[in-house]
Specification:
The chain is α/β, with parallel strands linked by helices. The chain has a single domain, classed as Rossmann fold. It has twelve helices and 13 strands. The protein has a seven-stranded parallel β-sheet, with helices on both faces. α1 crosses α7, α2 (63-73) runs parallel beside α4 (95-114) and α4 (95-114) packs parallel to α5 (152-171). It is globular. It binds nicotinamide-adenine-dinucleotide and 2'deoxy-thymidine-5'-diphospho-alpha-D-glucose. Residues 85-87, 125-127, 181-182, 192-193, 196, 208-210, 215, 217, 252, 276, 283 line the site of 2'deoxy-thymidine-5'-diphospho-alpha-D-glucose.
């Protein structure tokens, strides 16, 4: 099989490229990434010399470059991880989110139609459902929960989902969508909660917790996200949406305290800062469809996954230190200066 993985130098796309290479060593992988601030080729380093792995620097919104790639490789499957993904950045500057997350998906789908790609898989997010109240633990997102977005990021992802559905219905595009909860694991860019808190705690820097730290996220190890997408690509039904999550709800304060405990650092590092505008209260996924129809089961508990992840950041400082020492410094100062 020839599989095109877009956004492959990012967190989940990178983990997925490793996953696919390890599980399907006879497949040809074409990894595409524009290498924005979030893309890091160091993530793909172990794959770069492999005969069946090719990396191409390309922007999914660039129709003519992408058309050349489709013409050259005639992909069997295209799985799209390429996106602008950080909610806080979308609040400051929405334009690039709309461009990549909506128009980029249109470019990919038009080419999948033209080259009769057997499967286009769109990696979406649980954020398209908006949020759930904190005092109703019985409520979970199902695939039929209405789309109800809060941030420019989530609105752009929901727009793409609607476009995918339209292409399935109007053109018969062979497509699937997955909506996963918050991922954690190796190679995650340190602007996101877990790697941000790990690297700052290691440096004895203050840990900026938004609001009261009571917002809840449903954490899934990135490996379990990859195995779910694998099952959808192989056995999922065209035109269907699949929710992915492992019932691992934690509030942000609990997550930060877990990190501090494992690192042997003091809770006095925690600083409550101004809340994120439009901050979603709680996400929680009902993964029944994945479990019943595709037999998916996560292998990680949160306790095991977070421990391994913290250990990974401790052993792989050479992966994240160049990031936090570079332009990222400026990002952190700008993004957090008004939150104190
Ligand atoms: P990330 O920000 O770590 O990586 C995104 C990658 O896309 C980067 O390598 C970047 O260079 C690349 N990219 C950005 N714009 C591009 C463009 N125009 N053309 C080509 N490449 C481009 O993001 P992530 O956390 O790995 O998320 C991957 C996907 O999974 C996204 O679609 C996101 O919406 C979705 N998702 C993420 C999570 C999560 O918790 N991180 C959960 C559910 C769904
Ligand atoms: O649910 C899936 C989504 O999860 C993905 O679609 C997004 O791409 C991904 O970024 C993530 O979105 P969140 O906004 O939930 O993730 P983030 O790591 O930015 O924040 C997690 C929680 O932690 C959220 O409630 C905000 C809070 N937070 C975050 C940061 C960066 C803080 O309290 N302080 C911080 O400095």
């Amino acid at each position: 099989m020839k599989i095109c993985i877009t956004g492959a130098a990012g967190f989940i796309g990178g983990n997925f490229a490793h996953y696919w290479f390890n599980h399907y060593p006879n497949d040809q992988i074409i990894a595409v990434d524009a290498l924005t601030y979030a893309g890091n080729l160091a993530t793909l380093k172990p794959l770069m010399d492999q005969a069946n792995f090719t990396f191409v620097k390309a922007d999914i919104t660039d129709g003519s470059t992408m058309a050349h790639l489709f013409e050259q490789y005639h992909f069997d499957v295209v799985v799209n991880f390429a996106a602008e993904t950080h909610v806080d950045r979308s609040v400051v500057d929405p334009a690039v989110f709309l461009k990549t997350n909506i128009l980029g998906v249109q470019v990919l789908m038009d080419l999948c139609r033209k080259y009769d790609v057997k499967r286009f898989h769109q990696v979406s997010t649980d954020e398209v459902y908006g949020d759930l109240p904190l005092d109703r633990p019985d409520l979970l997102f199902t695939e039929s929960t209405p789309l109800h977005t809060s941030s420019p990021y989530s609105a752009s992802k929901a727009s793409a989902d609607l476009l995918v559905n339209a292409y399935v219905r109007t053109y018969g595009l062979k497509a699937t969508i997955s909506r996963c909860s918050n991922n954690y694991g190796p190679y995650q860019f340190p602007e996101k909660l877990i790697p941000l808190m790990i690297q700052r705690a290691l440096n004895d820097e203050s840990l900026p917790v938004y609001g009261q730290g009571t917002n809840v996220r449903d954490w899934l190890h990135v490996y379990d996200h990859c195995s779910a997408i694998d099952l959808i690509i192989h056995n999922g039904k065209e035109g269907e949406v699949y929710n992915i999550g492992g019932h691992n709800e934690r509030n942000n304060l609990e997550v930060v305290k877990t990190i501090l405990k494992q690192l042997g650092k003091d809770e006095s590092l925690i600083h409550f800062v101004k809340d994120r505008p439009g901050h979603d209260l709680r996400y929680a996924i009902d993964p029944t469809k994945m479990e019943k129809e595709l037999g998916w089961k996560p292998v990680y508990t949160f306790d095991k996954g977070i421990k391994e992840t913290i250990d990974w950041y401790l052993s792989n400082k050479d992966w994240w230190q160049p990031i936090v020492n570079g332009d990222y410094q400026h990002y952190y100062e700008t993004m957090y200066k008004d939150r104190q």
